[in-house]
Amino acid sequence: MTRPLHDVDTSTLRRRTSIKWRAYPEDVLPLWVAEMDTTPAPAVVDAITQALTDGDTGYPVSSAACAEPFAAFAAERWGWAHDPARTVVVPDVMTGLRQVLEIVTGPGDAVVVNPPVYPPFFGSVERTGRRLVAAPLGDDGRIDLDVLDSAFAVAAAGGGRPAYLLCSPHNPTGTVPTLAELTAVAELAARHGVRVVADEIHAPLVPTGAVHVPYLSVPGAGDAIALFSAAKAWNLAGLKAAIAVSGPEGLDDLRRLPDLAHTPVSHLAMIAHAAAFRDGGDWLDAVLRDIAANRVLLADLVAERLPTVGYRPRRAPTWPGSTAGRSGWATTPRRSSWSVAGSR
Questions:
Q1: % of the chain at pLDDT higher than 90
Q2: pTM of the model
Q3: Burial class of residue 212 in the structure, from the number of CB atoms within 10 Å of its CB (0-12 exposed, 13-18 middle, 19+ buried)
Q4: 128 within some domain
Q5: Structure confidence at residue 128 as a pLDDT band (50, 70, 90)
Q6: Is 84 within 8 Å of 64 (Cβ atoms)?
Q7: Do residues 13 and 109 share a domain?
Q8: Same domain, yes or no, for 152 and 261?
Q9: Which residue, among 120, 213, 149, has the nearest Cα to 175 in the 3D structure?
């Protein structure tokens, strides 16, 4: 059985020249966010190798190269059918978020975020000259709908065109919003006149036992714009690309995003991302199995080596290879406790 997180040795990793492996001395084992210790999916390697062999290293021609494979992936994984024509390629998710904010809001308009959240969200709001409104998550790491309602009211009271940066699945808590939660978000957004812009980059990494619900599949979310990428799930951070997808009422705004002729999107990156979405499903499933096994291993090691520390995951589905009540999986806090967010 393929083990992507195990089928690579340290010597191979040490030959890498990315920042993860060059920012620290050799005696430091870097535990880096968003860069896996694995080799790429064979489908991605094959696609890039063929492109180089063919000299296919020119400029990209259209978003269709990524849009159609992503649409097929979304339909298979999440049961979400959307029109690939409502897709635009952007350089990466954070650049796309800023571009969308500049279109759907104006200078000084309010943008709601859910702290604790991916830190660049704050910088994106600031750099676009928008006004930040915080709607902190609840103690369970989930969207607090009453708090969000109040934040939307504050955002709308300031006039202009307020927006909400939704992070789903949430980074860093690892929580996965449910259909009911997202439906409630859409209802609140409609009530207060708030546009939703969703970062769904971690959607392919939702673990066994949880279900990702694309925000655009929720009733009432037709004017939203969501951003996706293969960068996290297939370890393609060095091949930057992402796609922005709109609902039917958001299409006019989507079309105002910079087109490919003015946006630095790599043709090879688009080839890699398309290959991941189209043919990288088996490799992704193997990664998810490895992550699940590592969660169980972490629980066992905490119970064995840190017996006074409790381990309480945000969610506790049945992971492949785990057994109910396994030692350390959901321990009761003793002298101290800490929580580990879902793998992102």
A1: 77
A2: 0.89
A3: buried
A4: yes
A5: very high
A6: yes
A7: no
A8: yes
A9: 213
